[in-house]
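R.M. (postdoc): so does anyone remember the format we settled on? I'll just put the structure tokens first.
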């Protein structure tokens, strides 16, 4: 799993939010305000070129575990989290809901509920973004190499998408292809295909479709790792049953077979699961969404769509972040906001 300083800080903050119930109760107002205090202290350190000792002081005072090398974006992360949660606390009535009994728990199929075909079709309807330049990243076939993008919006639509190679060099200085995603050659079809669809006004459907296919793939991988054993057909089918209440998909009953456990080739099993979920969405849910233009480069395409989507989240007027525009002379590390 790729871990740069910012991602480490993000993971630790999200753990803190989760462990405190995201501070969504009146008795945790002071603790929520502490996020804002930490952000302000980090911002003040920027001009003084923060070193480990100055960050250690903040960690000691506030019981956090921030690492250096991504100070500005980490400050924005704390500030953005504070602003969003404060807005929720200020404008919404927080009600404590009793945890349902086991008898009331939703069934397994509902736990992985996907949008209906009508909801999916409307994802890109009446979507307009404020004009501006927005930055975001995602990860494709190569886990350790980000796909950093600059997205330009004009007349409320995506005008241009550019790959920002200098950010790759900061994270992976030895990369042989810093000017393009992944290996810069074999998977470029997925990258270009996503940008074309994004400019055509399909980014929300595309990102949802690709991520919804990728998530069960990762879920299977995670569950297999928990067993400490090599995956077997029965094991994988059991996990798919727990997610979808089935392990055969589409009118032709497509499924995983023994041939998909070939360890001499990378991602054979993962790609098969990804493909099966797409069949499920298109045939059984009725999405009928054509992604032939990115076939053969699914992981690069998914990371590219994720990067564009992450960039556009900063343009979303419904999310009230403070300043997430980072001055050029401070360097530009990449913000990835996952909605709570």
């Amino acid at each position: 799993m790729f871990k740069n300083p910012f991602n480490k800080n993000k993971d630790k903050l999200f753990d803190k939010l989760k462990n405190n119930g995201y501070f969504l109760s009146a008795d945790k107002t002071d603790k929520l305000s502490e996020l804002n205090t930490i952000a302000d202290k980090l911002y003040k350190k920027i001009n003084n070129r923060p070193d480990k000792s100055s960050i250690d002081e903040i960690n000691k005072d506030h019981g956090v575990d921030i690492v250096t090398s991504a100070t500005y974006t980490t400050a924005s992360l704390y500030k953005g989290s504070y602003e969003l949660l404060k807005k929720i606390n200020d404008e919404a009535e927080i009600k404590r809901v009793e945890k349902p009994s086991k008898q009331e728990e939703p069934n397994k199929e509902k736990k992985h509920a996907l949008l209906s075909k009508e909801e999916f079709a409307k994802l890109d309807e009446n979507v307009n973004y404020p004009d501006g330049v927005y930055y975001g990243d995602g990860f494709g076939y190569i886990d350790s190499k980000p796909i950093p993008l600059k997205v330009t919006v004009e007349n409320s639509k995506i005008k241009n998408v550019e790959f920002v190679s200098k950010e790759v060099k900061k994270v992976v200085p030895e990369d042989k292809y810093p000017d393009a995603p992944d290996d810069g050659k074999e998977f470029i079809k997925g990258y270009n295909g996503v940008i074309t669809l994004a400019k055509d006004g399909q980014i929300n459907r595309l990102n949802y479709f690709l991520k919804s296919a990728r998530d069960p793939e990762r879920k299977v991988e995670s569950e297999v790792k928990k067993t400490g054993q090599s995956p077997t057909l029965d094991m994988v089918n059991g996990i798919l049953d727990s997610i979808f209440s089935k392990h055969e998909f589409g009118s032709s009953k497509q499924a995983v077979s023994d041939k998909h456990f070939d360890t001499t080739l990378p991602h054979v099993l993962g790609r098969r699961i990804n493909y099966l979920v797409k069949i499920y969405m298109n045939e059984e849910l009725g999405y009928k969404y054509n992604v032939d233009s990115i076939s053969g480069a699914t992981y690069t395409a998914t990371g590219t769509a994720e990067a564009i989507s992450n960039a556009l989240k900063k343009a979303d007027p419904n999310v009230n972040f403070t300043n997430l525009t980072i001055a050029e002379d401070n360097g530009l590390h990449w913000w990835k906001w996952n909605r709570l």
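R.M.: ...and that's the designed sequence above, right after the tokens. Also worth knowing: The chain has a mean pLDDT of 79. The first strand starts at residue 132 and ends at 139.
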